[in-house]
Specification:
This protein is of the alpha/beta class and about 300 residues long. It has a single domain, classed as 3-Layer(aba) Sandwich (Rossmann fold). It contains 10 helices and 10 strands. Strands 3, 4, 5, 6, 7, 8, 9 and 10 form an 8-stranded mixed sheet that branches. It is globular. The protein starts with about 40 loop residues before the first strand and ends with a strand.
Length: about 300
């Protein structure tokens, strides 16, 4: 395991001649508006603008909306609340683990920005909840670009509202399914925002449990990335909190298949990468804030790790 100095390679894009659509702070051309505002309508249950052709599937639970309900958000439906109530009955400490995961995401995002990451690809972003990844990153690197990837129309509707107040050309949302990484990475809107000739930080936070073949997904995401790119993950496991197996069974029985992974399997996700300190560790022990004692390992159900593509 190793730590690496910040990436200080000059950005060739900053030598571009400016035009009316160039970001004055970075001299980078502004990213596209990835979702058309035409033909949107306001959903009466969420008060969000959505595509009238989109099926919100409100009759079945969705992992992002279950999470939103448990975390105290306002975007959920009866099926989501019913599922949340059952998993909380099985594991009352689940919200504590979810809060710890969010805090770990903040630490990872901040550390990546300190290492020099200026392009971020957040896979399975979920319903926004401030501070979001781009807000944390841009505290350190105001010119950093962040692209949120999600397939859920409710998430996209929230992203539109989020983008309305975000710096032009530096935050975008692309509708794509992480289970088809080739299509995701080939999306033209993504390439308008991200320069794949330069390092990209890929964050997959609490999402790999919903993918049966996680190794294939990670390999596909990393393959086209430049040397110096990063992978940051948090991954649910059955090796820490004793309630994890029941939690996975509850999600799976309600139509949200969940796959738990051991520490060795998480470590294999980083095969061929430089695994940065502190390695694959229980989430609260991943670079805890100075002076802040971490939660016991058994209070959460996830491992965390960060690696760099050599």
């Amino acid at each position: 395991m190793t730590d690496v100095p910040p990436d200080t390679t000059p950005d060739p894009q900053t030598d571009q001649k400016t035009d009316p659509q160039t970001d004055p702070q970075t001299d980078l051309k502004a990213g596209p508006q990835t979702d058309s505002q035409a033909d949107l309508q306001t959903d009466p249950q969420t008060n969000l603008q959505t595509d009238p052709q989109a099926d919100l599937q409100t009759d079945r639970p969705h992992s992002a909306r279950v999470y939103d309900y448990i975390m105290g958000g306002g975007t959920h439906f009866p099926a989501d609340r019913e599922t949340a109530a059952q998993v909380l009955a099985d594991w009352p400490g689940l919200r504590t683990s979810m809060l710890a995961n969010r805090a770990c995401m903040h630490r990872m995002a901040r550390h990546l920005a300190e290492l020099g990451a200026r392009q971020f690809l957040d896979i399975g972003s979920g319903i926004p909840s401030s501070p979001n990844l781009h807000e944390v990153v841009q505290e350190t690197a105001p010119g950093a670009r962040v692209v949120y990837i999600d397939r859920d129309p409710v998430v996209l509707a929230h992203a539109r509202a989020l983008l309305a107040g975000a710096p032009a050309g530096r935050v975008a949302c692309v509708q794509a399914d992480m289970r088809t990484p080739e299509a995701l990475l080939g999306d033209p809107a993504l390439h308008e925002m991200i320069d794949f000739a330069r390092p990209v930080a890929v964050t997959v936070i609490a999402m790999l449990q919903f993918v049966e073949r996680a190794q294939d997904l990670v390999d596909a995401l990393l393959e086209p990335l430049a040397a110096g790119s990063w992978l940051a993950v948090t991954v649910p496991t059955g090796e820490l909190a004793p309630e994890s197996e029941r939690l996975a069974d509850q999600y799976t029985s309600r139509g949200i298949p969940m796959y738990l992974r051991g520490r060795a399997e998480v470590a294999r996700l980083f095969a061929g990468l430089e695994l940065l300190e502190p390695g694959v560790v229980p989430m609260p022990r991943w670079r805890p804030a100075p002076g802040e004692p971490p939660l016991p390992d058994t209070a959460t159900n996830m491992y965390a790790a960060l690696g760099r593509k050599p």
